[in-house]
Design a protein that fits this description.
heterodimer, A: about 450 residues, seven-stranded mixed sheet, four-stranded antiparallel sheet, 14 helices, globular, B: about 500 residues, alpha/beta, Aspartate Aminotransferase, domain 2, Aspartate Aminotransferase, domain 1, three-stranded antiparallel sheet, GDC-P_N (chain B)
Chain lengths: ~450, ~500
C-alpha cells in the first residue's frame, strides 16, 4: 500500500511543482521522518483512498491546448453568428485595454485586500468603482460588488426584511424570471413571503401592486428597464412603495442609465443590478458582477465589502476595507448576509471599461442602443412582424411570431443568426413571443437582414 | 492637511477626452425625445472619468504596482491557498468559444461548454467521493448556504421540521455560522480539545434530535486532521443529522482521502483555492457543491447531463428535478472560473493532484519544525497543509502579532492570516502551498527568525513596521466612524 507515496516522484513531472528529490529528502530530515507517509498517519486507514483517482490523465501543454481548443470550437460563439440575445446578458463593445489591464497579475493573483499597505491598488480601484456606480445609479453609496444581479436583488430583499422587520417581498413579474427564482430560494432560508405583482401591457400592473401592498410589505422590487425591455413608471411605483414602511428596490441595467433618469432620482432606497454590460464578456452567464447601491440611511446595512478613504499616520491618503462590523467574519451567526468572496476582478474590469467609455461615451453608447433597437423594431414592423407592446423601451422589445420560438430559432440558426429569447420558457401567456435585444454592436446591415429573415418566417 | 502620491482617476479627468472607439451609429438618428419620454431622461450626466487610453493604462498600471499578488511574491495566507495561478488557464478561459457564449443559446450550439461542465462535475465527484456535483454556487460561502438549504430540504421532506440547529466548531470559518443563519438555522458551537480537535464528549452533548447538520473543515483551520472523523460522523448520523464538509482546506487531501469516504453528505469546494483559479483581489470564485445520493433530489436546477442520441453523446441541461431547492444563481454558475479549474485538473491528472497535496503537507510541516524554536506552536503533532503559531511569547515583549505581520511586509511577503482561528491567542496561520520552492520557504523562515530576534533586541522596528511600503498604517477607526465611501468633486 501507498508505495507510490512513500517513494515520491523520481523526477519533476509537473511544471507547477518545484519539489526535487533532494529538497524532499532535506525537508523530511528536518521534520524527522523517513517516509512522506508518516505525515498522513493521522488519517485512519479505513478512510484512506488507496486507489488512483479515476479522472482523466494529465496532458502536456500542447495536448492540453488542443483538447481545450476542441471543446471551445465545438461551440458557436456570439462573435461568429449574429446575436439578438439579451434577457439579462448583453454582448457589448469591450475596449481592448480592459483585458490588458486585467492581465496585470498584481490584481488577479491577489487575495481580498486585508493588508492595506500592500493592497492600495485594489482598494483604490474598488473605491473608484463604488464612486462610478453611485454616479450612474444616483445613489449615495455603492458596495464593492456582489456575485451577480439576481443574487444582489435577493440580498436587497433580505436587507429590506432586516431593516423593516417585515416579511413580505413584493416583486413584479416583469423582473427577470431567474432573479425571481433566486429570490424565492433565498426567501425560503429566511422564511420570507414572496408575492408576485402582475404584469399589464408589458409593465408592472400598478393597481395590482397597490392592492397587494400592506403593512407587512418589506419592499417593492421592480426592474428598469424591465425584463420585457420596457421602462417602468418609477414615479408611480415609488409612491406606492413608500406609502408604508417598505423600501423601494430597483434592479437596473447600468448602461441604460447613461440616458435614463437614475432610480436614485425616483426615490429608490436600493438599486441593484449587474455591470456585465461594461467590459465583461457574456461567458455563458458567469462570472459577471453584481452591484448594490443604497441611500446613506442604509449604509450600515449593506451586505458585502466596502472600501473607505482614510489617512495614514503621516496624513497621506489611503484606502481600507471599512464598516467590517457588518460582515460575516466579525458577526458570524449574527450576520445578515454570508457573502465573503465577491466579484472584485470583474468590478475592476467594469471600472476600466466605464473609465474608457467615460462620461460622454456612456451617453453615446446608451443612445446607440436606443436608436438601433428602435430602428430594428420599425424595420421588423415594416416586414410584417407583430410588435407586442407599445411602451418606451431601452434596447429590448417583444415580438409575436406565427410559431413557437424554439422552432423559429432553429430556422434562424441556418441563417447564422442567434435569435432572441423564448419568453414561453417563463411566461405561460407568452407563447410564440420573442424578446429581441439590439445593442450598439449590431450594424444596420445585420438588422436589415434579421428583419427580412424573421419577416419571412411563416 | 491630507496629501497623496496617487491620483484618483477622477482627479486626472479632463472634459473632452475619450478612451474608447464606439461603433458608428449607422441607422438614421431619431430625436431621442420621440423615443424616450423627457421625464424618463437623465438631466445631469454621471460623473464618469474622461481620460485618454494611455492615461487609463498608466493609471491602472500604477495601481497594479501598489498591489501584491502571488506573482509578486510569497503569499502564505492560511486557509486561503494562495498557490500559483497558471497562465494557460487564463488563455483558455479567454478563447472566444468559451468567453463569448450567451447563456440562452440553443444547447446544440454549446455542446463543448456542456461537455466541459459535465466532465468537471464528474472529476469533482470522483475527487470528493460524492454522487452528484452542481457547479452553480458562485463562491465558498454561497456553496455553504446551498448545501445547508439542501440539508434543510432533505429533513423537511422527511417531516423533520424540528431540526433547526447546525453545529459548528469554535475554530470554524466565520462564513459557517453566517451561512447557517442565512439558511434559517441556529448555530451551536462545539468546543475543541487541547489537541486542537473537536471535543467528542462535547459533540455528544450538543447533538440531538434538533440537529440538522455538523459543519466541519477537515483538516480543520488549525491545519489538523480530525482523526476521529469516523466516530464523529457516526454520532451525527445516529442522531439523524447530516455532515457538511467545508472544502476550504481540500488542498491537503487530494487523492489521499475523500470527504465522501469520511462520512460527509455534502461538500463544497473552493475552486479559487484548491483548483488554482485566481482570487482576483476578492473574487470571482466558484463553489461547486457535491452531495450523496439521498440529497440528489434537492439539488439546484439545472444540472448538466448526457444522453445518447443517434449514437452520439448529447449534453443537456436537466431541469427535471421536481424537489429541487430552486435556483441559487442565474444561468449555470461562474462558467469562466469553471473552465480554468477544468484546465488545471487536465494539467495535473490523478498523479499530479496527489502530488499537490503531498507537497503542500510536506512544505507546511517543514516550516512548522523550523519555526517552532522561535514562536510558540500550540499543537505539536504533524500538521496538514497549514499550521498555526502563537505570538504570545512576542506579546510579552510588547510585540503583537499584527506588528509581526506588518514587519513581514518590509521583507516583501504577504503576511499569514492573523488572529484566526479565534481559539488561538495572537494567532498566525501559515499555508505555504505546494507551488513554492524550498528556497522561498527558507528565505521566509529566515525573515521570521529575524523578526523574532528583533522582538527581543529591538522591538520598535517591529512595532513601527512597515517601513518600506507605499503607505504607513492607516487610520481604520476614523474610516469606520466617518465613512468616506466615494469620491466627490470639490466645489
Amino acid at each position: 500500500m501507498h508505495k507510490r507515496l512513500a517513494k515520491g516522484e523520481k523526477k519533476l513531472k509537473f511544471r507547477y511543482l518545484p519539489m526535487t528529490e533532494q529538497d524532499q529528502k532535506q525537508m523530511m530530515d528536518t521534520i524527522g521522518i523517513k517516509e512522506l507517509e508518516e505525515l498522513f498517519q493521522d488519517i485512519p486507514k479505513e478512510i484512506r483512498y488507496d486507489g488512483r483517482l479515476n479522472i482523466e490523465e494529465a496532458l502536456d501543454e500542447t495536448k492540453l491546448v488542443k483538447e481545450m481548443t476542441r471543446l471551445a470550437e465545438t461551440n458557436i460563439n456570439v462573435k461568429q453568428y449574429m446575436s439578438f440575445l439579451g434577457a439579462g446578458v448583453y454582448e457589448h463593445y469591450i475596449p481592448s485595454v480592459v483585458n490588458h489591464m486585467l492581465l496585470r497579475s498584481e490584481f488577479y493573483t491577489a487575495y481580498t485586500p486585508y493588508q492595506p499597505e500592500i493592497s492600495q491598488g485594489e482598494l483604490q480601484a474598488i473605491f473608484e468603482f463604488q464612486t462610478m456606480i453611485s454616479e450612474l445609479t444616483g445613489m449615495d453609496i455603492a458596495n464593492s460588488s456582489m456575485y451577480d444581479g439576481p443574487t444582489a436583488l435577493a440580498e436587497a430583499a433580505m436587507m429590506s426584511a432586516g431593516q423593516t422587520k417585515k416579511k413580505t417581498i413584493l416583486v413584479s413579474k416583469t423582473v427577470h424570471p431567474e432573479s425571481r427564482e433566486v429570490l424565492k430560494s433565498n426567501a425560503k432560508g429566511q422564511n420570507l413571503h414572496v408575492v408576485e405583482i402582475d404584469e399589464k401591457d408589458g409593465v408592472t400592473d400598478v393597481e395590482d401592486l397597490s392592492a397587494k401592498y400592506n403593512e407587512d410589505t418589506a419592499c417593492v422590487i421592480v426592474q428598469y428597464p424591465n425584463f420585457l425591455g420596457n421602462l417602468e413608471d418609477l414615479a408611480a411605483i415609488e409612491k406606492i412603495a413608500h406609502q408604508g414602511k417598505g423600501l423601494f428596490v430597483v434592479s437596473s441595467n447600468p448602461l441604460s442609465l447613461g440616458v435614463l433618469k437614475p432610480p436614485g432620482e425616483f426615490g429608490a432606497d436600493v438599486v441593484v443590478g449587474d455591470v456585465q454590460p461594461f467590459g465583461i464578456p457574456t461567458q455563458l452567464g458567469g462570472p459577471h458582477c453584481g452591484y448594490f447601491a443604497v441611500t446613506k440611511k442604509l449604509m450600515r446595512k449593506v451586505p458585502g465589502r466596502l472600501v473607505g478613504q482614510t489617512t495614514d499616520v503621516n496624513g497621506k491618503r489611503g484606502f481600507v476595507l471599512t464598516l467590517q462590523a457588518r460582515e460575516q467574519h466579525i458577526r458570524r451567526d449574527k450576520a445578515t448576509s454570508n457573502i465573503c468572496s465577491n466579484q472584485a476582478l470583474n468590478a475592476l474590469g467594469a471600472s476600466i471599461a466605464m473609465a474608457a467609455i467615460g462620461k460622454r461615451g456612456v451617453k453615446d453608447m446608451a443612445t446607440q442602443n436606443i436608436q438601433k433597437a428602435h430602428y430594428a423594431k420599425n424595420k421588423l414592423k415594416e416586414k410584417g412582424v407583430e410588435i407586442v407592446y407599445d411602451q418606451p423601451f431601452f434596447n429590448e422589445f417583444v415580438v409575436r411570431l406565427p410559431k413557437p420560438i424554439e422552432e423559429v430559432n432553429k430556422e434562424l440558426l441556418n441563417h447564422k443568426i442567434l435569435g432572441g429569447f423564448d419568453l414561453s420558457r417563463h411566461y405561460s401567456d407568452k407563447e410564440n413571443m420573442m424578446l429581441i435585444a439590439v445593442t450598439e454592436l449590431r450594424t444596420k446591415e445585420e438588422i436589415d437582414e434579421f428583419a427580412s429573415v424573421l419577416g419571412g418566417i411563416k | 492637511m491630507m496629501t497623496h502620491d496617487q491620483s484618483l482617476i477622477f482627479e486626472i479627468s479632463k472634459e473632452g477626452r475619450i478612451g474608447h472607439s464606439l461603433p458608428e451609429l449607422d441607422v438614421p438618428e431619431v430625436d431621442i425625445n420621440h423615443l424616450i419620454p423627457k421625464e424618463m431622461q437623465r438631466t445631469e450626466a454621471p460623473e464618469l472619468p474622461e481620460v485618454s487610453e494611455l492615461q487609463l493604462v498608466r493609471h491602472y498600471t500604477a495601481l497594479s504596482r501598489r498591489n501584491h499578488g502571488v506573482d509578486s511574491g510569497f503569499y502564505p495566507l492560511g486557509s486561503c491557498t494562495m498557490k500559483y495561478n497558471p497562465k494557460i488557464n487564463e488563455d483558455v478561459a479567454r478563447y472566444a468559444g468559451f468567453a463569448h457564449l450567451h447563456p440562452y443559446q440553443p444547447e446544440e450550439t454549446i455542446q463543448g461548454a456542456l461537455e466541459l461542465m459535465y466532465k468537471l462535475q464528474g472529476s469533482l465527484e470522483e475527487i470528493t467521493g460524492m454522487d452528484q456535483v452542481t457547479l452553480q454556487p458562485a463562491a465558498g460561502a454561497h456553496g455553504e448556504w446551498t448545501g445547508l438549504m439542501l440539508i434543510r430540504a432533505y429533513h423537511e421532506a422527511n417531516g423533520d421540521f424540528q431540526r433547526t440547529k447546525v453545529i459548528v466548531p469554535d475554530s470554524a470559518h466565520g462564513t459557517n455560522p453566517a451561512s447557517a443563519t442565512v439558511a434559517g438555522f441556529d448555530s451551536v458551537t462545539v468546543r475543541s480539545n487541547e489537541k486542537g480537535l473537536v471535543d467528542l464528549d462535547h459533540l455528544r452533548e450538543v447533538v440531538g434530535d434538533d440537529t440538522a447538520a455538523l459543519m466541519l473543515t477537515n483538516p480543520n483551520t488549525l491545519g489538523l486532521f480530525e482523526e476521529q472523523i469516523v466516530e464523529m460522523a457516526k454520532i451525527v448520523h445516529d442522531a439523524g443529522g447530516k455532515l457538511y464538509y467545508d472544502g476550504a482546506n481540500s488542498n491537503a487531501i487530494l487523492g489521499i482521502t475523500r470527504p465522501g469516504d469520511m462520512g460527509f453528505d455534502v461538500v463544497h469546494l473552493n475552486l479559487h483555492k484548491t483548483f488554482t483559479t485566481p482570487h482576483g483581489g476578492g473574487g470571482p470564485g466558484s463553489g461547486p457543491v457535491g452531495v450523496k445520493k439521498d440529497l440528489v433530489p434537492y439539488l439546484p436546477k439545472p444540472i448538466v447531463a448526457v444522453k445518447e442520441e443517434a449514437g452520439e453523446a448529447r449534453y443537456y441541461f436537466d431541469y427535471d428535478i421536481p424537489d429541487s431547492i430552486g435556483r441559487v444563481k442565474p444561468y449555470y454558475g461562474n462558467f469562466g472560473i469553471n473552465v480554468r479549474a477544468y484546465t488545471y485538473i487536465r494539467t495535473m491528472g490523478p498523479d499530479g493532484l496527489r502530488n499537490v497535496s503531498e507537497y503542500a503537507v510536506l512544505n507546511a510541516n517543514y516550516m512548522l519544525r523550523r519555526l517552532e524554536p522561535y514562536y510558540d506552536a500550540p499543537y505539536t503533532q504533524h500538521c496538514k497543509h497549514e499550521f498555526v503559531l502563537s505570538g504570545r511569547r512576542q506579546k510579552k515583549l510588547g510585540v503583537r502579532t499584527l506588528d509581526i505581520a506588518k514587519r513581514l511586509l518590509d521583507f516583501g511577503y504577504h503576511p499569514p492570516t492573523i488572529y484566526f482561528p479565534l481559539n488561538v491567542e495572537e494567532c498566525l496561520m501559515i499555508e505555504p502551498t505546494e507551488t513554492e520552492s524550498k528556497e522561498t520557504l527558507d528565505e521566509f523562515i529566515e525573515a521570521m527568525i529575524q523578526i523574532a530576534k528583533e522582538a527581543e533586541e529591538n522591538p520598535e522596528i517591529v512595532q513601527e513596521a512597515p517601513h518600506h511600503t507605499v503607505i504607513d498604517r492607516l487610520d481604520e477607526t476614523t474610516a469606520a466612524r466617518k465613512p468616506i465611501l466615494r469620491y466627490t468633486k470639490e466645489a
